[in-house]
Amino acid sequence: MASGGLQLLGFVLAFLGWIGIIISTAMPQWKMASYAGDNIVTAQALYEGLWMSCAMQSTGQIQCKVYDSLLKLESSLQATRALMVAAILLGLVAVFVAVTGMKCMKCMEDDQVKKMRMAVLGGVIFIISGLAALVATSWYGNRVARAFYDPFTPVNTRFEFGSALFIGWAAASLALLGGAFLCCSCPRRETSYPPTRGYPKNAPSTGKDYV
């Protein structure tokens, strides 16, 4: 029962992490314009994401523009896109594999060993998905931080971390944690020892065997 609860907890955490990765990938707030300068006064907030850039006016109106050409984008942005999409696809595969191996499902009930292996395999794929998302968000965040502290970057073109990055970091952590729980939910095999053999009891001596 304990392993079944740990398995369910791991799947829920990993699934929530996968949903968070999808949300983070779709959000345009991967980085936001910094207003750290003293003389910066603006009536709009600028955001940039993996797929579009947006500007939010002081009235609350948001205008977004999708990037025109894939070939004009930076190679680092293309790599970040690829890692996040790969994390989403791997998470989708992990969901189906892990559901098949869940104890509460009736799939593969006739072979419990294969069922446990499917759950562990789903956990491993979830871990790989979380690592891909963690690498992508950390790499992007590192680029934002380096550009921010670069003295040659103009003050009015500096960006800070957006909310999508924080969601991506949290989602990757959930996917890693949930995948680890799924891998640890496999119950240990108990070592079976052969039954101890009792020694035959000696028949009581009557004294007739001696001459």
From TrEMBL:
The record ties this protein, via Gene3D superfamilies, to: 1.20.140.150
Write the record's keywords in alphabetical order, separated by commas.
Cell junction, Cell membrane, Membrane, Tight junction, Transmembrane, Transmembrane helix
User: Function of this protein?
Assistant: Claudins function as major constituents of the tight junction complexes that regulate the permeability of epithelia.
UniProt similarity note: Belongs to the claudin family.
| Keyword Membrane attached | yes
Protein topology in the membrane: Multi-pass membrane protein
Q: Does the keyword Transcription apply?
A: no
| The species this protein was found in | Zapornia atra
Question: In which broad location class does this protein mainly occur, judging by the first location in its UniProt entry?
Answer: other
Specify the domain of life of the species encoding this protein: Eukaryota
A Pfam family cross-referenced in the UniProt record is PMP22_Claudin
From the broadest rank down, the organism's phylogenetic lineage runs: Eukaryota, Metazoa, Chordata, Craniata, Vertebrata
GO MF, any single term: structural molecule activity
Q: Where in the cell is it found?
A: Cell junction, Tight junction; Cell membrane
Q: Please give the start and end residues of each transmembrane region.
A: 7-27, 79-99, 119-141, 161-184
Q: Name one GO cellular component term.
A: bicellular tight junction
Listed name of the protein: Claudin
